[in-house]
Amino acid sequence: MTKAEGIIIRTTDYGENNKIVTLYTSEFGKIGLMARGAKKPKSMLSSISHVFFYGLCLFNKGRGLGSLYQAESINPFRLILSDIEKTGYAALIVELTDRLTEDSQPFPGLYRLLRDTLLLIEKGTDAAILASIFAVKMMKVAGIDPEVDHCLRCGNEAGPFKFSLSGGGILCRNCEASDPYALPMTPSVARLLPLFKKIPLNRIGNISVRQETIGEIESIIAAYYERNAGIRLRAWRFIEQLSHFRAKE
Ligand SMILES: [Zn+2]
Question: How many domains, in total, are found in the chain?
Fold first, then answer.
C-alpha cells in the first residue's frame, strides 16, 4: 500500500459502478487507478473521484492499473469549481499535463508547477494569465521550447517580431520573410512570452495583462501546440467559446 499526495487530472467511467482515475503525483508521475464503486453515490470514493481532486491518496500501485482505496482532501478548490471561467482554465492545465506526460515517469518539478498553479487560481490570481504561463512553461516538457528572447535566425533583440510556428520562435523584421506564415505579434505579446517562460510562479503577484493581449497569446500557444506537438486541446475550444461570450457582453 502506498500513500502519496496527488491531483486527479482525468476520470473515465468503467463499467456500471467504477471509475478509472488518472492521478498525477510527485513521486510516481502519472498513474492510473481503479476507483471501485466510485459511481455509487454512497461509496466513499464517489466524492473524491473527480477531476481537480487534490489530496493524500492511499492506493495499491499495480503493474498496470492500480487500485485507489481512500483519499483525504487537502484543498477542495471551491473557488475554481464554482466559477466557469476558472474551471475552464484549470481544465486546460490538467489536460495539458495529461497529454504531455507518460505513465509512471516522476517529474517533481512538473507536479509542483501543476499544484502551485491550481492553488494560485484558487487564491484568485488571474486564471487566464496563469494558464498561459503554465502552457508556455510546459513547452519545454513537450520538447518544443520556443526561442522567444531574440530572433531565432540572427539573434536580433529589437522588435517588431513575428512568431514562426514552424521555426519555433520569433523572427525579426529582417528575417521574417523566411517564414511567410509567421504570425504577427504586438509588442506586448513579444514582451510577455519571455517573461512567462522565466517568471517563477511565486513572483506573479498582481500581474495584469489586457484581455486582447491574453487572447493573442492564447491563439499563438494553441497554434504552436497544434503545429509542433500535434495536440488540439478540448479545453481551448471551451475557452474560445467563453471569450466570444465575454466579447458580446
Ligand atoms: Zn533576425
Answer: 2
